[in-house]
Amino acid sequence: MFRLGIAQALAYRAELIIWMLTSTMPLIMLPLWHAVAEQAPIAGFSQSRFTAYFLAGFVIRQMVGNWASWTINSEVRTGALNRRLLRPIHPLIAYATESLSTIPVRSVVALPVGLLALAVTGADHLASAPLLVLMAPLSV
Predict the structure, then answer these.
(1) How many Å apart are CA 108 and CA 16, to the nearest integer?
(2) Domain locations along the chain
(3) Is 71 in contact with 95 (CB distance < 8 Å)?
(4) Which residues have C-beta within 8 Å of that of residue 37, sequence separation ≥ 6?
(5) Rounded distance, CA 42 to CA 84, Å?
(6) What distance in Å separates the CA atoms of residue 139 and residue 129, rounded to the nearest whole number?
(7) Is 110 exposed, middle or buried (0-12, 13-18, 19+ CB in 10 A)?
(8) Confidence grade of residue 74 (pLDDT, cut at 50, 70, 90)
(9) Exposed e or buried b for every residue in 92-102, given b needs 16+ CB within 10 A?
(10) Confidence of residue 91 (pLDDT cuts 50, 70, 90)
(11) In terms of Cα–Cα distance, which of 138, 76, 62, 66 is closest to 98?
């Protein structure tokens, strides 16, 4: 089931890229808040902290995004849910598996973009607290 979900995600690459582009708002907001914080820190956030915040927001948003509700809504409206109900696997398990199988595909794009943006903006704003670094994988 998981391999089928990955195959489906790779088969519909254009759809996956469009979904990923719709969740790039943190990358769009980054230059805006970076320019605002150029004069002085805002509520304790300097330019480097804004960069870290929005890059983390982008990567986490890509890793935890779930569009199952949109798919369920569409399939209920169009009647395509009938095909899922005839299968021996519960539809919610199928939706969950499809959603989980897109995470590796999205990470192939999101992690290099996040690392590239981090390299361009500088790594001086990385968390120095070990607990924060350990919490990063848990957020995914």
Answers:
(1) 12
(2) 2-139
(3) yes
(4) 45, 46, 47, 50
(5) 50
(6) 16
(7) buried
(8) very high
(9) eebbebbbebb
(10) very high
(11) 66
Please tell me the predicted confidence (pLDDT) of residue 107: 84
- Encode 33-45: b = buried (16+ Cβ within 10 Å), e = exposed: bbeebeeeeeeee
The answer to whether the CB of 79 falls within 8 A of the CB of 16 is no
3-state secondary structure of 78: helix
Query: Residue type for 39, please?
Result: Q
Q: Over the stretch 9-56, which tens digit does the pLDDT of each residue have?
A: 667 777 777 766 777 777 788 888 888 888 888 888 887 777 878 887
